[in-house]
Design a protein that fits this description.
The chain is α+β, with helices and mostly antiparallel strands. The chain contains ten helices and four strands, in the order βαβαββαααααααα. Helix 1 links the parallel strand 1 and strand 2 (about 30-35). It comes from Melanomma pulvis-pyrius CBS 109.77.
Length: about 250
């Protein structure tokens, strides 16, 4: 019997849910260790991931611990998708899936994350940085729009891990760009339809239900900030105060 994979995460971020949705789609058992963002740079988590970024996984079935979502997803596919539910067996399609996963982790994730930082979290507004990263979001969406022309999925006729890897960051575009939810895919109809196909799947609903529960348990807003906190400067003050209070106990 397959033992559950332990997924260590801060629930607010998009990256942990990329891993969880792949596990859900494959029906691989897992359990979540959810912890506050302020603990990501300290032990015991940094014993698992010295880079201090979530998620990380521990697989008791193989004894392997991994961090970095691209590596984790490729590992899950190699070990647990032997029936190719979210992948292909032939060289061309396998390589194309890995290509798009690389694009997600090198293009979409970093640029969308920086846009979110400068639009929402940075304590002062820097118009040049905001313009740069907002433009990069549109560029990445433009690439996907072109690739998806006349297609339902990025590779072949079936959904793969490559598609799912884009879903969580694309779902945040409105909160990153500070636009209306219905406007986040304006000008990118292929991307919009593709995204809607993914978020209509049972796996997505399960993941977002778990995220909402964990966020509520930690008293977090949808953007990951604690309730009552409006920017990263205020959050850093809170983190410092909480650490000092804990040290006095």
């Amino acid at each position: 019997m397959t033992k559950p994979i332990k997924v260590h995460m801060c629930p607010a971020g998009p990256n942990p849910w990329k891993v969880v949705i792949v596990l859900e789609e494959l029906g691989v058992p897992y359990e979540v260790n959810s912890f506050p963002f302020q603990e990501v740079k300290s032990k015991p988590f940094t014993d698992l991931n010295p880079n201090g970024r979530a998620p990380a996984i521990e697989d008791p079935n193989t004894g392997i611990t991994l961090w970095e979502t691209g590596a984790i997803i490729q590992y899950i596919i190699e070990v647990y998708d032997t029936n190719h539910v979210l992948s292909y067996s032939n060289l061309k399609e396998r390589s194309l899936c890995n290509q798009y996963l690389a694009f997600q982790i090198s293009g979409q994730g970093p640029y969308f994350g920086q846009a979110g930082w400068f639009n929402v979290l940075h304590p002062e507004k820097l118009p040049s940085a905001i313009e740069r990263y907002n433009t990069e979001i549109k560029r990445v969406l433009g690439v996907l729009e072109t690739v998806l022309d006349g297609k339902k999925w990025l590779v072949g006729d079936n959904i793969t891990f490559a598609d799912l890897a884009f879903s969580t960051w694309n779902d945040r575009i409105d909160s990153v760009l500070l636009c209306a939810p219905e406007a986040k895919f304006d000008g990118f109809p292929n991307v919009k339809e593709w995204h809607e196909r993914m978020i209509s799947r049972p796996s997505w609903k399960v993941c977002m239900g778990k995220r909402s529960q964990l966020m509520d348990e930690q008293g977090l807003l949808s953007n990951g900030m604690p309730k009552g906190i409006s920017n990263i400067a205020e959050y850093e003050v809170k983190i410092k105060a909480d650490a000092e209070a804990t040290a006095r106990i």
